[in-house]
Amino acid sequence: MKHLLYLTPLFFLLCCSKKEDTSTNSNNENKVTEKKVAPELQLEVINSDSAGPDLKYEIVDGKAIIVRYSGTAESYTIPATIEGARVSEIKRRAFENCTSLKSVIIGENVVTIGPWAFSGCSGISSIEIPESVTTIGNLAFNKCFALEAINVQENNNSYSSEEGVLYDREKIKLVQCPLGKVGELNVERGVKYINDFAFRSCEQITRINLNNEVQLIGNGAFQGCAALNQISLPESINSIGQMAFYKCENLTSIELPESIKSIGVQAFSNSGLKTIQFSSGITSISKGAFFDCPSLEEITIPESVKSIGRGAFSRCANLKSVTFLGDAPSASSDAFAGTSPAIFFTPGAQGWSDQFSGLDVQERPSQP
Asked: Domain with 57 in it: what CATH number?
């Protein structure tokens, strides 16, 4: 009996302690349940049966955004609405690498198609852009190698198309050439700008005819056009962007018009150039402009050139001679790294010494 009296208070204390722990946990749970998210951070993620289990999307401010499609269907229609919300955007990479897709119909309320939205959809042969679309991101159709036509509805106020090529509404800018185009292509009259990456990886185009109004060739505009063997640059062009003709392996010659003052970084690197005809208007040759052009054997630099960037002619393994017609330009010590051409300068020119960019220099022999 005496032992029982001692145990009773101990049992009571243990029970009270357990009850207090339970109460504390309950209060903590209530606090978590009652926690609210700031209105500006609220994001509703839905996967409803109406859109299908393979489609992930978000609804933000009453508008639906396609985030990711992971299905294996050959044909897919992006709905106009989901759960009563207008589908206004296809997010970047939303359909990336959906190789089974051969046909996509874009909903009538879509306003924005993000960068790389359909990248790697190698089975799509054509795509229709509805009149609602106002923005198409760079490389939206990257690696769509079967794509032969990008067609825009007539009432679209931002874009237009001609023979399957995507332009802005006024046809001042060529936005995107479908990668499945084959052979020769004529750029529409009135076009002044070739967009960044406009012809990137158009591997079956052999010739491009630019009009006499084109002023700018964007970054990477013709990058990876492996079959391109002929393009004439008109006198209207004043700028060639970075990597504009990178890896154009069948482009063997280029003539740069006098309107061009500088050449973008790596503009012709890794190309098949054998001959380059510089104009007397060019003043600088940028970093890596002709890097790794193994077929290049001889070049003549006009007297207008004042600077040559790093690695401009590096790794041109078969470059045998470089002739300068004017005074010695400024040049990086590695402008000709990985190659060892003979460097010639014109008699009477100023600024020359025994070496130029780490190479021996000699006066050009007199012409007979």
From this structure: 3.80.10.10
∠ Cα 244 249 255 (to 5°): 60
Q: Determine the pLDDT at residue 51.
A: 57
Residue 362 resides in a domain: no
Q: Are 268 and 293 in contact (CB under 8 A)?
A: yes
Query: pTM for this structure?
Result: 0.83
Which domain does 112 fall in, by range?
A: 44-147
Residue 333 has a pLDDT of: 93
Note the pLDDT of residue 49: 39
pLDDT at 1: 40
Residue 294 belongs to a domain: no
pLDDT at 262: 85
Predicted local confidence at residue 23, as pLDDT: 42
Determine the pLDDT at residue 365: 82
Q: Which portions of the chain are predicted below pLDDT 70?
A: 1-52, 367-368
Location of structure tokens 């919300």? 85
Long-range pairs of 299-303 with CB within 8 A, sequence gap ≥ 24: 299/323, 300/324, 300/325, 301/325, 301/326, 301/329, 302/278, 302/326, 303/327, 303/346, 303/349
Q: Is residue 48 part of a domain?
A: yes
Strands 342-345 and 330-331: what pairing?
A: unpaired
What's the domain count of the chain?
1
Residue 130 forms part of a structural domain = yes
What does the DSSP assignment read for 65-88?
Answer: EEEEE----SEEE--SEETTEEEE
Q: Cβ(210)–Cβ(230) under 8 Å?
A: no
Buried/exposed code over 190-223 (b: 16+ C-beta within 10 A; e: otherwise):
ebbbbbbbbbbbbbebbebebeebbebbbbbbbb
Give the position of tokens 């722990």. 21
**How many C-alpha atoms does 302 have within 13 Å on its Cβ side?**
17
What is the maximal distance between C-alpha atoms in the chain? 133
